[in-house]
Amino acid sequence: MPLLGAAAWAGALAATAWGGLGPALVGxxxxxxxxxxxxxxxxxxxxxxxxxxxxxxxxxxxALAVASLTWVRGLAVTEGPLAELAHERARVELxxxxxxxxxxxxxGFEPRTAVRLQVTEVTARGVVVRLRSAVLVxxxxxxRGVELGERVRAGGRLAPGDRxxxxxLTGATxxxxxxxxxxWWRGAAVVRQGIREAVAGRPADQRALVPALVDGDDAxxxxxxxxxxxxxxxxxxxxxSGTNLTLVxxxxxxxxxxxxxxxRWLLLVGALGxxxxxxxxxxxxSVVRAATMxxxxxxxxxxxGRHRALxxxxxxxxxxxLVQPALATTAGFALSVLATAGIVxxxxxxxxxxxxxxxxxxxxxxxxxxxxxxxxxxxVAAISGEVSLVAVVANLxxxxxxxxxxxxxxxxxxxxxxxxxxxxxxxxxxxxxxxxIAAVARRGADLPAASLGWGTGPASLLLLVxxxxxxxxxxxxxxxxxxxxLLCCAVLGVAVCVRLPTPGWPPPGWVLVACDVGxxxxxxxxxxxxxxxxxxxxxxxxxxxxCLDRLGVTEVxxxxxxxxHADHVDGLPGVxxxxxxxxxxxxxxxxxxxxxxxxxxxxxxxxxxxxxxxYGTTRTVGEVRLQAVWPRPGPVVAGPGDGSAAxxxxxxxxxxxxxxxxxxxxxxxxxxxxxxARALPGLHVDVLKVPHHGSRxxxxxxxxxxxxxxxxxxxxxxxxxxxxxxxLLDALEDAxxxxxxxxxxxxxxxxxxxxEARLVTRD
Length: 763
Known about the structure:
Helix content: 40-55%
Largest sheet: 9 strands, mixed
CATH architecture of the domain at 510-761: 4-Layer Sandwich
Radius of gyration: 29 Å
Shape: globular
């Protein structure tokens, strides 16, 4: 069965990678089993050869079946009637069923509501077509109220879709409700609401974490806490995973045994529990995958669990890929399979080694998260570029409260519907448990070396795989002896708690660093030993936090957020985490409104005052002299709210550090650049932060007039905007400016040597 699971996965990946060769793959795959069986028959009557031939034929059949389904479903998405209308950008009217909860997403200039629909009828150009296709709606606030399972009618313009949907419906009209959700969907919604009500009086982290832990409802989760969960390897607790199902259904089975339920009736209780969990957490592919892996985990708890679970894992992979071939390319599916396989294959050996000198229950508590973490480490590094050094310890510390938190949260959500006071007491207990989980995540992420940066190239990942294999081979021998185990724990503890210097970084004499935070801005001006002024925070809290950690920055007397777009402010929790922050200054134009409100809430939560950047005032912050030269003075204004006014309202700073004059330009566009050129005629600087990530829309005459010998561009690798524009780079280089790019070079520093400024990169 594990071989069949691997064959199914290989078939899905092959069909996805070479979709255009689908007919050829299907034809070739159909010949393989026949050729193998004929060859075996002609070779003689050897039972071993026949078994070998039958195995190869079965693997080929399974791979062929999954590859064929993947190819056909891909065609249905990309070549169907909706896809054709989407390529024509046609206006349509749809009748569909809501198949996902509404979620707020960044719509560029304003937040949008994303809802997935299963379309059953489309009307375009007077023609009605009945079909079954998935569409993603990007609508306004009117779509926030739609319910899962509800039948709706709406109009809008189609655009090409991706990630398994045939089209996007943009500019969607207000949904017309045609039919309410079925009874089971309404019941699941009531229970989810009950879980939220049971913890309504708890602190914000607990209000968000209990629903996330019980049913995957993570809409209210703080981005900073979410980043801490990623750093400490606890993300699986905030998403729907096999662990959630194992705990919920395991509790139901224990309860059923107390009620003297035995035999096949227990199987019925387990099956009903799995179905109820899927309804509660939503029938999305990720939930079905998690439920299946949780069922495998339940099998592993029984007699002969290792062999039964391994066979069940192979069968689960085959069935899941036959039902939903698109799972083959998702990170969640791969992590679930690897974690389950690690627990089944590696866990017993680690447990037996530890059980030689510690209680068996304690050995199992350590072995299970360790086995899962080792199995998933290469893939996690490929996704995040990091290897967590505290994941096993963090999972071990939270393990005693995960079960009680999940069960108390679920039971509290049910009881609060009939006995609110009792439900609130149960919710208090669930909140106390997740409070400990949040504390472990925050404290673990604040450790100096909680995670280790790791490359995502083939050579780096291959090295990591080799190291993990060596660790698996060596670990049982090391863990079998208490002295060697404690010595390894001590070494790991020192490595995590003591910050090790990055060789050659930060470079001596640095005055400015443009952090590699992806598609966004985060710039650091050195104001003293361990101290810096931070201008913008990028889109990702761990990325900016890692950059500040590498620079040894423990105190930030001033944070300036040039404007409120997500790629400049979403990383603010990474700046605030574990550092003394004095003041946050922002643009006076509070646009987009969601970004400005987010900054206010995060600053208030960290007890850091926030205010508008003062125009024209020259200030000294440690070794940094700073002056805001744009926008012109005026009152704080709300702006249109959709983000369209944000770029030209960016705070532009003229700074001087170590005798180097630096112009930090935010995302100002050509109109504001022209006005700034007239306001500051004859301005010359040593370093230019190129506006708007190197967009092609620039006032080149003004940029060249600055005569900056050095420039830095902060942009994300392989971004969809074409930043930085080649024409802009050519113009700067023709003007004699050396350009440093975070998308190609990682962190870029400006250093001063013998009175001269030059660029230095970390990579």
